[in-house]
Amino acid sequence: MPCPRPVCQIEPAYVVRQSSDVRVELVDRVLRYEVTETFVNRGNRVGEADFMFPLPKGAAFQDLKLSINGELVSGETMNASQARQIYEEIVRRQRDPALLEWMGYGLLRARIFPIAPGEQKKVVVRFQTVAEREGDALRIDYFRGMRNTQLASVQQPEGRTSFVLTYPNDPMYGRAYSPTHSLYEGGYVREDSEDRSSDRSFASYDRSSMRRVEVRDATGEVTILIPLRRSTSAAISLLANAPGNGDGFALITLSPPSVRPRPVPRDLTFVIDVSGSMSGQKIEQARAAGKQILGSLSPMDRFKLIDFSSDVRTFRDGFSIVTRENIHAAEHYLDQLDAQGSTNISGALEEALSTPVQPGRLPIILFLTDGQPTVGERDASVIAANVAKERGSRRLFTFGVGADLNVSLIEQLALEGRGTASFVRPEESVERAVGIVASRLTSPLVTDIRVHGDGVRLLRMHPSGPVDIFAGEDLVLLARYNGSGDAVVRFDGQTTSGPVSWSTRVNFPERSRENPFVARLWATQRVGYLSAEKRQHGGSQEIDDEIRDLGDRFGIPTEFSSYLVVEPGMNRRRDMGAGGVQLQGIVTGAATGAPAAVQFEAAKTAAAQRSVTSLSMADEADFSGARQGGNVARAGNVTFVLRDSVWTDVRYKKTETILQVKPYSDAYFKLIEMVPDLHEVFSVGERVIVAGRSMAIELTSSGKESLTDRDMTLVRDRW
Fold first, then answer.
1. How far apart are CA 270 and CA 364, in angstroms?
2. Which of 310, 311, 608, 694 has its CA 20 to 30 A from that of 487?
3. CA-CA distances (angstroms) from residue 370 to 214, 264, 278, 399, 708?
4. What is the CA radius of gyration of the chain?
5. SS3 184
6. Which fold has domain 235-260+449-521?
7. What distance in Å separates the CA atoms of residue 49 and residue 147, rounded to the nearest whole number?
């Protein structure tokens, strides 16, 4: 008999995250994150890294770079479906792409392919967010990404995980500390750390201008707090970015004075979902969160506990006063809660809103659920409308736990209730999320705050409408502004002692390339606002178009756009007629046929970008010329895409009046003299179309060599 053929056992790809390094810089109240994830394939087959990447609340994505042949390559934001189609086409060709997709509510999905057996891939993600104040400290959080559990293609990290924070060495900041990890300071070990060995890695770090702390084993969620020195007077600050051909961008921060507010008696209602899906760890954490809330109450407060599944139950009828006996009985009630049944959200909210509001007391509702309405009213819009009708002066704060809930409803309830919506991932602590919000609601400092600009117009502000500030909070406002020069920013609100007004004189620049992250932060907030409006009131073509435009202009992944990185030398052309995607051509750092000087500047810029080791250096590299990769380029706040060999401003509309100018002619240099920012824009190449306020300028070999008086008037009036 013939010998049996040997069976070949092919092991699957086994992609692991080899290291995860996070660098954060605090500059002017803005946190700049740079996250470097390194993957390696431990298996015997080609693999793909597929992992979920959570962003902090309100974070503005900047870019993702993929290491290809030892060089970090940037990508571009493009139509989500086309990006996915191109990615899958490149995957079939065994080339090097990376795809970053928006998964909603601060969650991105990154996919990198191929990773050959034994091969290592590095990904660098950058984003910014505003540092939130918690009590008398700034809070810095980082939640490390995880593998996509649906594909399980990336295992949990093996090897190094680190977190480094740098912040100004300024008297207004105290010494950073962490409630979650041991911290090592630059050049030496923290005294409260068990490890007393010296740290040589920071020996050359200049501690005169910045402080630096490190978490060496940064597993789990990292939290760092930086104490703030408080003032007896209000502090109002402005960070502005003004492209010069439209409304500017402003980040305005109000830090109220450090005065002890007069206590306000509160009526606090905690509504807990105890349906069957809350069983196990969720119900345990919900009980702990309830006890934490009870512990935050003062003798002048009252409380009410509501638990719901198919039915709705209460601890007692009406509110209970805060006594030792009542708190002990309420804790015992929480211990007896059992998770079973369906989810009657509408019935629970009706019960929470049934007790009349008593004048002189602040009514607050904390609502926690992990599911969707399955009993009673099930239409989310009807439930939200009923809450808006019956809410009155109550503030409603919602908490969504896990991935199987009605996110739109959780968000609508918070919007209608003038509160906030918090989403807790399965791996996060429910107790901690509820505790953070509850601790901020101990005492309202100012309510119904509105901001006014005297001398400029503040437009499309986020948050919009009246805002409340509780003790230990700041108000951070992102807005567009129209006008320039000296102006007065004024905040008006109500306190327990009567109306209050704080103001300061600041300068809104007409043109400023500083603080480009402010524009991205505003755009990110704007996308979040439009998405919430879409979920609350239904979509429209206008909202979808604005979300698409913001994604394209600012390079933000949205529901309509994704971020794609491909190998250098690959140009994407969308062949819509054939319904497919072709990969062809070569895109270089400077336009074909450019003078040697231009090619040299482009090469110098590329070298500077490849050598960056920090966010500050990266920003300098960005300002030294266009940041290019594939068929996308950025210069300042302008994003270009390569269309028919022309670098075209994504804001450009073909209906606009266009002025054509020949590169390096008298007209070319006259325009730069009139609009200095064009010097940076024109460095993209010799074929460029850039959009102004109501006109565009095109660099082309057939353009004008000199400008007429009419041309210059056109630029002054319409650029």
1. 9
2. 694
3. 35, 31, 7, 8, 66
4. 28
5. strand
6. Immunoglobulin-like (2.60.40)
7. 8
Cα-Cα end-to-end distance for the chain: 87
Distance CA(350)–CA(373), nearest Å, equals 13
CATH number for region 266-440: 3.40.50.410
Q: Peptide bond preceding 243: is omega within 30 degrees of 0, i.e. cis?
A: no
Within its chain, how far is the Cα of 373 from the centroid? 29
Position 230: which residue type?
A: R
Write down the residue that tokens 């209970």 correspond to.
320
Q: Cβ distance 511 to 521 under 8 Å?
A: no
With tokens 């051509």, the residue in question is 585
Angle at CA of residue 662, ends 657 and 666, nearest 5° = 105
Tell me the helix, strand and coil percentages in the chain, rounded to 5. Answer: 25, 35, 40
pLDDT in tens, 438-484: 777 776 778 888 899 999 999 998 887 788 887 667 888 889 999 98
Dihedral over alpha carbons 580, 586, 591, 594 (to 10 degrees): -150
In whole angstroms, give the CA distance from residue 619 to residue 518: 13
The CB-side HSE value for 599 (13 A sphere, CA atoms) comes to 8
- Give pTM, 2 decimals: 0.62
Query: Which CATH fold topology does 15-227 show?
Result: Immunoglobulin-like (2.60.40)
Tell me the pLDDT tens digit for each residue of 603-631: 333 333 333 333 344 344 343 333 344 46
In the structure encoding, which two tokens stand for residue 72, read together?
A: 């970090």
Question: Where do the CATH 2.60.40 domains begin and end in the chain?
Answer: 15-227, 235-260+449-521
List, in sequence order, the alpha helices (H) in 338-429: 345-352, 380-390, 407-416
pLDDT in tens, 132-181: 876 677 888 887 765 544 433 444 445 678 899 999 888 888 888 887 78
Amino acid identity at 607: A
CA-based max dimension of the chain: 100
Report how far residue 376's alpha carbon sits from residue 327's, in angstroms, rounded to the nearest whole number: 31
Q: What is the pLDDT of residue 259?
A: 63
Residue range 196-205, pLDDT digits in tens: 333 333 333 3
